[in-house]
Specification:
Layout: H1 15-37, E1 42-43, E2 46-49, H2 52-60, E3 65-66, H3 70-77, H4 90-102, H5 107-126, E4 130-132, H6 133-150, H7 160-173, H8 178-203, H9 212-221, H10 229-242, H11 247-259, H12 262-274, H13 277-289, E5 297-301, E6 305-307, E7 315-317, E8 322-325, H14 327-330, H15 365-380, E9 386-387, E10 396-398, E11 401-404, E12 406-408
Parallel strand pairs: 2-8
Antiparallel strand pairs: 1-2, 3-5, 4-12, 5-8, 6-7, 9-12, 10-11
Helix pairs in contact: 5-6, 5-15, 6-11, 7-8, 8-10, 11-13, 12-13, 13-15
Length: 410
């Protein structure tokens, strides 16, 4: 998806987004204090969950603690249901299973990993030793790779990177401003219309391309339920809104953490140069633990519930309460992670909660586990990888979003 970007990926920061960013920067310290002395604090109708066991239990208790995504998803999807917003219902499983039929695990090693590595290698190789990681590398690779895989090309006169990021911001970091809602109304309709046009174009005549849209249309032609035009459109929008915007947030953060630790950076570079992708992944996901996608994730009590039942910290949570579930805090809990503040790439898989647990574990978890580290592999193979001088070489954020990190290499 090349070409000039018609509008910036991020809106100018507002006072509210600055306050959100201020709070997010200080949230890990607050969670660390609360985890020790007040593990489930309550402020009005909002509970904060800080310990590993309690975070895991909230994720696994979807009957009491559901996701709060329906209201904003209805705006994006024009009131069409999408399984991300549903509880444990037949409709949820039907929608999710329909996508599992067409987003196949075998595509990851056969297609996505080699394509991601080749794209990243081309960008790094052509950058001349000076690279901006967030947009020039990670966002380009992610949207090009997944747009092609899902069958949603760049829209005429628009930019999928901008559209997807803006809709993701509304869905997961809505600041409540009328300006953002107006943009979402415009972009949401434009993306729905764009996918409808692509569905019509791809259906007649079929072009022989193998991607998720083509597979959905093949299922539709066979008369399988779950693949009407509106169901395909809604599912593909859900993939675009929920998937590609995430790597540009978290992959630069992982690199930033490696650059802070010369020994860890050296180990990751050695794994990249030796082609030991499993070891490379262990370094990247351990780095992500120190600065995950978000310090907290929201849940809402859809029924009366209990956290830490039959313990001294037991909390009864009334229906309608909000919960902020501390991912970053859980992954620093010494009750379940030995020496949590040490960088240890040999940790066990259960020590990570990057992609959640239970019913609403990230749908793209297997893609993310394979592709996120690979996007950094060509860069890590370069000699003398280092930060750019000055402010450009520091990770810069706007709210929850990484917006810049410049590096140099030989």
């Amino acid at each position: 998806m090349s070409g000039a970007t018609p509008e910036p990926v991020f809106r100018p920061p507002t006072l509210k987004t600055r306050l959100i960013g201020f709070g997010l920067r200080r949230m890990p310290l607050l969670l660390r204090i609360w985890r020790r002395i007040w593990p489930i604090p309550r402020f009005g109708g909002t509970f904060f969950v800080t310990r590993y066991d309690d975070v895991r239990d909230v994720y696994l208790n979807d009957r009491a603690f559901g996701v709060p995504y329906k209201t904003n998803l209805d705006v994006i999807m024009d009131n069409q249901p999408f399984f991300l917003s549903m509880g444990d219902t037949p409709d949820y499983h039907a929608g999710r299973n329909a996508m599992l039929e067409v987003v196949r695990r075998e595509d990851i090693p056969a297609r996505l990993v080699p394509q991601a590595e080749a794209m990243a290698e081309a960008i790094v190789g052509q950058a001349g030793g000076r690279l901006e990681v967030v947009d020039q590398l990670v966002r380009r690779v992610t949207f090009d790779l997944l747009g092609d895989y899902f069958g949603v090309p760049n829209p005429p006169g628009g930019d999928l990177r901008v559209w997807g990021t803006r809709l993701f911001e509304f869905q997961f970091a809505d600041d409540g401003t009328p300006a953002l809602r107006a943009e979402v109304d415009r972009i949401g309709k434009a993306l729905r219309d764009h996918i409808d046009v692509e569905l019509a174009r791809r259906r007649a005549p079929a072009d022989g391309k193998d991607d998720v849209m083509a597979r959905c249309l093949a299922m539709q032609a066979q008369g399988k339920p779950g693949y009407s035009d509106v169901e395909i459109r809604t599912a593909l929008m859900g993939m675009i809104v929920g998937g590609p915007p995430q790597p540009p947030m978290v992959v630069p953060q992982a690199l930033d953490q490696l650059l802070r630790r010369p020994d860890a950076l050296s180990g990751a570079q050695r794994a990249a140069r030796d082609g030991v992708d499993e070891t490379l992944s262990s370094y990247v996901f351990e780095a992500m633990r120190f600065d995950p996608l978000a310090p907290v994730m929201p849940r809402v009590a859809v029924a009366d519930g209990v956290i830490a039942a039959r313990t001294r910290r037991e909390r009864r949570v009334p229906k309608g309460s909000k919960l902020m579930v501390g991912l970053s805090s859980a992954m620093m809990d010494s009750r379940r992670l030995p020496e949590p503040y040490d960088f240890d790439p040999r940790r066990q898989p259960h020590e990570y909660i990057h992609f959640g647990y239970g019913l609403h574990q990230c749908f793209g978890i297997h893609i993310n586990k394979a592709v996120l580290p690979i996007m950094l592999k060509p860069l890590l193979k370069r000699d003398n990888l280092r930060r750019a001088h000055g402010r450009a070489g520091r990770l810069r954020k706007q709210g929850a979003f990484a917006v810049g990190l410049n590096v140099r290499y030989d």
